[in-house]
Amino acid sequence: MLNNIVLSVFLILSYFGYSIQNTINQRNVVNYIYNDDKCDFNILPINTELNENIEKCNDIINNVLIKKEEGKEIKFHGKIHISSSVFEHINEKTFHQDVFENIISQISMLLNNYRNKIYTWDVSDDLITNYYITSLIKEVNQEDAKSPIILNEENIYLTPYYNLLKKIFIIGNSLDQKMNINYHQSIDLDSFNYEEGIQKLSILNQIVHNLMEESIPIKQLQFEFFTSNEKDIHNKYEKAFQFISNLKLFSNLNIPLYFLIPNKDNHHDFDRFFQKCHKNNIKCAFSITSSIDNYSSEIAYNIFENDYNNNMSSYFNSSVNVITSQFYKRDSINLNYNISYYSIDNKNIESSIYSYNTQSRKLNNIPDMTYLNIYENFKKISIKEVKDNNDYNDLVTLNFCVFIDTSDNGNRKANYIFDALALWIQQKHQEKIDSQSKKNEYEIIVTVKNDRNEIICMKNEKESCPDDCPDFALLSSNDISIYYKKSYLLSLDKYIREYYKNYGITLESKIYKYAFYDYHIDNQWMAIPFTVQIRTLLFNSTTFDKCMNSESLRYPPPHNEEWDGKDNNKWDWSKFFEYSRKIKHCTKKNGITFFGENAEELKFLSMYVQSVGIPFIIENDYKVKMFATEKDEIDFADRFKDLKEVLKNHEINGWIKDSSIEKWRKSSYPNDLNNYPKFEKKSNYEILTEDYGTPSINGMAIANPEKMVQYFGNGNGEIKYANVPGLSSYYGGEGFVIFNSNCTDHKDEAFELITLFINNTLPFLHDANSYITPFEDTENMNCKQTVESINECNDYINNAISDIYYFIDRNNEYIIFSAKHIPSNKNENAKLVIEDQRILDLYSSDGGAINKLEYTCGASVDFQKKIITYSNNRIDLPILTNGVQNVLTIKSTNDYFSTNKNVDVSLCSITNDMLKIARPIQYPLNGFDKMNEIEDKELVSILFANIYYKHNDTVNVPLEKNLKEFKSLIDYHILPSCSDFLDTNFTLSECKVSTISQDVNYVNCKKTNDSTITSTVCNYIPYGNIISIITYIITGIFYSSGIVSLVLMIKYRKSKNLSAFGMDFSIILLCATFILTASVFFWLGEGSNTTCHFKIWLQTIGLTNMVATVLLKEERISSIFIGRDVQKIFTPKMKDIYIKLGVINLVQIVLLIIWSITNHEPYIQIQKYYTNLGYKKIEYCDIFSSRITAIIFLFIFCMIIYSLLISIKIRNIPKEFNESRFIISSSTFQIIMIFFVFFVCIITEAEVYRGICYILCMLFLILFTRPLFIEYKLYCIITKKTIESSIVIVNASSYISSSEKKSEYQTTQFKNTNAAITEVHSIF
Question: Which DSSP helix (H) or strand (E) runs through 1242?
């Protein structure tokens, strides 16, 4: 009884709610559903409890729905949950056929059992929260970080599960087409993390997308939200909103996303949920449920079928006793836009207001504009939203620039740009309304430029930023490399990672694979491809028909399937040129129509060389790019013979203007690589009208189909499109870039706009490309939905010869059927009538209930109205497959038997096939800035002109010579300038003896100005150099004079002057200078580890003994005359002096041994960067950077300082022994020279400069020291110059003979007066 009362209340409330809703919007629906947990079925790999659950559910249905509520329209809702153990089987690779069949058997039993009772089923699997899916993703991420998981045949984990799901949906629909099966996911708002869950969402998206692609009837994709903390209502809805905000990846689905939110609070505001769905371009519906006992009311709001901006939404208040619905109208968005046109002199010449169509995503009534039109007439065009108060002071300005060759692509439509910008401005404005914040509103300025060399606002120019500094731009693939080289572009890697977070799939995986080589530079994405250009073949079918029998011609593929790629059945370049000769023989006209405008020769040649196995551009180990081969000789001329014959025999038309050729022939042939001419080309129109007066080709041509369409349409006439010969087509296009400039502060907004442009669910990408897109997962809507016109459809049916049509079904089998044709008349379009019962059974809603289907030509496919469309030699027929509306493409057997046996020969299909084999010119290299030089200098024109036209000075030149010249031209012009190249590679000549220099021969750049270094200093001083010769002479003089001095010292060893200094000390000092002089020789010639060791050892030993000798002498004098140590006068012990000298040398030798051990290879090679040169290999002795070396020289410095201090101390002793003035001068000079050597060797690694410094300093040091302490004494002896003395030298043995006398004498006071006479022993 209670149940009946509750049910009655609900039915009354249902009527009440329904009335309210219909008052506002009839498309909002109110339904009541019944669900019991006993009808929730858990599907396990092994059937254990299913039969028991079925019995319980049967009881519920029979007792509640049938007996108690008979006649009431209450929908029963069933739930099927696929156990996570299924994924466990998949993860462990035990998901065999028996497991698969067992699961399907259980579900079949369920659906059969309730086929007339339960019409709605939710199939859930908890894929989002499943542990095994998480493990799979972690495993994949370990191999390739954040790699997208692609659902394809190679995916052995998820593909079996996808097949299971597909089978479930097919079974349900086969039992009853009215049965609705939803795919259900539960989302725990407390634990879901988008960063981690994005890959799971991507898998889910791919599953649903693939089901739809295979026409599997899936009704809804449901997300049911739940949270453990039911009390925190606000936080629950905030998390739900965040989840919905990140579902951009589902924008490619054509079914609604259903969000189930339990209604356990008193207030719901779903307006911003709708707004977020709208912004993300996804179809959303929300179900709010309020449970009373076992009954649930489901109030569903949807906006995806309504005009978004006029939609009534949005909150629903509920309690146990009362259900009311309240609606309010959203703040409307201003859909009018002000577009201002500025003249070349930057004056606003016109402003117009245009409304925006939210359905078509286009501005209404905006005039057609092309790039050329904008470039020639306007400096800029701005677009902003119309404001009622005309207050535009707070607008933020973004600048968008299109850099394009207007002579090549100027006629392309540009309206899509403004359509996209208007949508983005609208979205930003809506965000401002939704957030009720002071967010920016935008004005976007569009400019078109034709000069790739124009300077862009660059960083560090903030103070002088112009108003039109572009934030982002559309650049050709060549321009991208140029601007990247100039550091104008921002790396997009950061934004591509962000794209992955938003859409669950990497942008790289979507981009056509060969686009990588144009847009990915130096391991970073510098641009996002947007447009794509390829080349196709065109051929005259009339000519082929005429010559088919006499010359054995066949239509090129795909128009004829006999091209099987074997032996003589290859459609390659040899066959292409062979057909050219045959057509010329048959028609007496050129077999190939050849175009030269916009560097078509370059694209033609790149396709040819890549197909015959020659890379157009290669790169050697030095990163030097060159044509075809590293070798100087041409070893591939044989592969050019076919091309040469075609050019030489004039089997193609002339493409250069006669006046330009005559001027070239009359001038001398250039002998400078920079002085080759540029030819004036004939336009495409001139070439096409040469033979017949109207645009046509006689035989074949290779061209850009987008340009040829204006002359020949889509290939429905005698000129048809086909596959290019060989293995490669040309790939080019444009891509979006963001500028790396401090003048632009809107890089994030720029990428938002780029994302909008490339969104495949919006029309902009498709409007910018005629037939194909640069994204592998995106078919161009122009091809998918192209309708030539109703008239063409009428013409096709009116003129049809055969009434037999065909298509290929899912099993890859030909289905052939007949259809009647009813011609068009004044009142009706042509009709196609199908009476074939097989087709009616398969593809109509009522099967046998009808005996014919009558379709009418129209503008768009419509199943309800039975409208067909004609496009590219095919008819698109609306059908019903498994309850889902779909389109079947059929073709007439007229085409089938005469051409290609069911092969699509539409331009869309051909361009798509050509895209698959299209490669950039520089493939397999990435884009580089000098590629444009080949195009700008028209280098291919020179090669072709030399063969086709022949210069007066170069008649009958061998092909090898032509190719060698061509290679030289390319190699030279693509070689970058050394002044612009930071990482130069070069080789060095042998060291020139006279100049100590090596010539620099650059291998990866060319000298273009005076700042480029052409020579560099050698790593050593050659033996034959003047420095070495002078060094030999001076050291020879030093050694000669030293030997003479040694002889004289021995001869005059008893001389008073010599004795005053000391004979032993003189000899030691002289030997020290000999050692130091010897060290100089090791700074000449090429270095080695041995010479390095000799350098440090000899200079250390020589300097140490030179300084120590003077120091020890001064110390002895000081001890006698200052310390009053008289005993040293009469008991001279040179042994003490030798011991001290030995200790000093021992210390240095120990340090030298340690140095030699720790630096066993002191001769090192390093790469050092030199401005205007690059990295050069430097070879030098690394003997001054060691701490041991520092200690060695510090020890020598300390001895010099000590010697200086003693010299100052003994400055007043008898002048015979007082050489302090010499020592002070000598020591100071020693400090300066040694410090200078040490300093120079530290600051430079150039061995030449180090050697010159060392040689000069050491020779000066020797030259300064020896004359003071040795040669001057000898000079006095030889010249018998008398030195005034206050000291008398006597024989000590006759004067003092006992220790007592010695002791007594030691107490004698010495008087330092001129009159005093002191008899002493020679102290040295």
Answer: helix 1220-1243
Cα angle 463, 464, 468 (rounded to 5 degrees) comes to 125
Q: Which two tokens stand for residue 1138?
A: 């030798």
| Of 128, 124, 277, residue with least CA distance to 202 | 128
**What amino acid occupies position 854?**
E
Q: Are 875 and 832 in contact (CB under 8 A)?
A: yes
Residue 1084 has phi, psi (to 5 degrees) of: -110, 150
The amino acid present at 1109, given as its one-letter code, is T
Q: List CB contacts of 119: < 8 A, sequence separation 6 or more.
A: 75, 76, 176, 178, 179, 180
What backbone phi and psi angles, to 5 degrees, belong to 39? -105, 25
Strand segments, DSSP code E, in 534-620 are 536-540, 592-593, 617-619
Least confident interval from 31-35, 996-1000, 1024-1028, 1186-1190:
31-35
Q: Which residues, 6+ apart, have CB-to-CB distance to 463 below 8 Å?
A: none
Q: If you write DSSP's letter for every residue of 1211-1235 in order, what string do you get?
A: TTS-TTT--HHHHHHHHHHHHHHHH
Structure tokens at 126: 């908890």
DSSP characters over 724-793: PSSS-EE-EEEEEEEB--TT---HHHHHHHHHHHH-TTSSHHHHH-SS--SBTT---HHHHS----HHHH
Q: Is the pLDDT of residue 236 over 90?
A: no
Cβ neighbours of residue 1142 closer than 8 Å, sequence gap 6 or more: none
Higher pLDDT, 1312 or 1010: 1010
Give which of 298, 292, 287, 301 is closest to 9, Cα–Cα. Answer: 292
Region 1222-1243: mean pLDDT is 66
The residue among 991 and 72 whose pLDDT is bigger is 991
Report the alpha-carbon distance of residue 762 to residue 753 in Å, rounded.
12
State the DSSP H helix or E strand holding residue 1057, giving kind and residue range, or none if neither.
helix 1056-1061
Helix (H) or strand (E) holding 354, with range, is: strand 348-357
The H-or-E segment that residue 1106 falls in is helix 1089-1121
HEC string of 879-919 equals EEECCEEEEEEEEEHHHHHHHHCCCCCCHHHHHHHHHHHEE
Mean per-residue pLDDT over the chain, rounded: 77
Give the DSSP H or E segment for 795: helix 790-798
For residue range 369-380, what is the model confidence (pLDDT) as tens digits?
999 999 999 999
DSSP letter for 471, please: S
